[in-house]
Amino acid sequence: MPERAERLHRHEFGHSIQSLILGPFYLPCVGLPSLVWAGFPPVARMWKSGRRGYCSFVTERSADRLAERFSSRM
């Protein structure tokens, strides 16, 4: 698998772990803020311009950290 696809797969795996941990609170606590971060034009311009990384946002950074923590156990 190419490296970029591997990173994306791992990142989404992290979101799955967040969902397992938060249960019904996943959407309001992670899903909605992530959606705003990814798609709300004034916010998205920040990371698209390179001023901030996409994964610098707390929910995205958390997904990456959880994926790293749990993928090493597989």
What does this structure look like?
- By secondary structure, the chain is mainly alpha-helical.
- The chain is 76% helix and 0% strand.
- The chain has helices at residues 3-22, 26-39, 41-48, 58-71.
- The longest helix has 20 residues, at 3-22.
- It starts with a helix and ends with a helix.
Blueprint (SSEs and pairs):
Elements: H1 3-22, H2 26-39, H3 41-48, H4 58-71
Helix pairs in contact: 1-2, 1-4
Supply the key terms.
74 residues, mainly alpha, 4 helices
Largest sheet: none
Q: Mean pLDDT, rounded to whole units?
A: 90
- Helix-strand makeup class: mainly alpha
Please trace the helix and strand order, writing H or E for each element.
Answer: HHHH
Give the end-to-end Cα distance, rounded to a whole number of Å. Answer: 17 Å
Summarize the model shown:
The chain is mainly α and 74 residues long.
